[in-house]
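Hi everyone,

Forwarding the result from last night's run.
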Amino acid sequence: MTLSRLRSDKGATIPLFVWVVGMVLFAAFVFFVFAKGAVARSGAQSAADASALAAAQDVRDELRLEFIAGLPTGVWVLPLEGKIPSPGNGIAGAQRLAAENDSRLLGVNPTFVRGDLAYEARIETNYTVGDSLVPGTEDTRARADATAVIEPRCKMLANVPGQTIEFTCDGSGLWVIDPKTFNAGDLPTAKELYEVNLAE
């Protein structure tokens, strides 16, 4: 092969090399953008999960108060079984957890999942995907929603006005309470009465 032929081949290879390197770099930048988007979506989902759980936990505590208030009058069964919406909406707890996860709460909606009271939280991140080669991503914020369910752990056994009441709870067993002489501090905790989980 002559020297002139070698120089010709070398000259033809350089543009191809530059083009391949450019495509690889472009693909790397695009992949980086999508990776940042995935991180933002993951962060948004974590914030939504935390907000929904906080809302449900706040309402769980309020349901316990309704349960206690109903003991003297005999109307404690529905709160115990989580069959009535609490007067609260869980917004305060959801807002707090959204802020702790660098997000803002868009709303909390009460709902039911398989017959159990539940709360759906919707959030939007305060941070964006950031500058990239894809136009518009610098202002894009991730949104996500999650639902947490309040699952009653107890079941009524006896409810006769003026007499002791009885119910049993998963984990803490049988409870026998005199509605005329009970001490609120001796009653089951909110965690013993209700379990809070993310809806599947």
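Residues 3-152 form one domain.

Cheers,
N.
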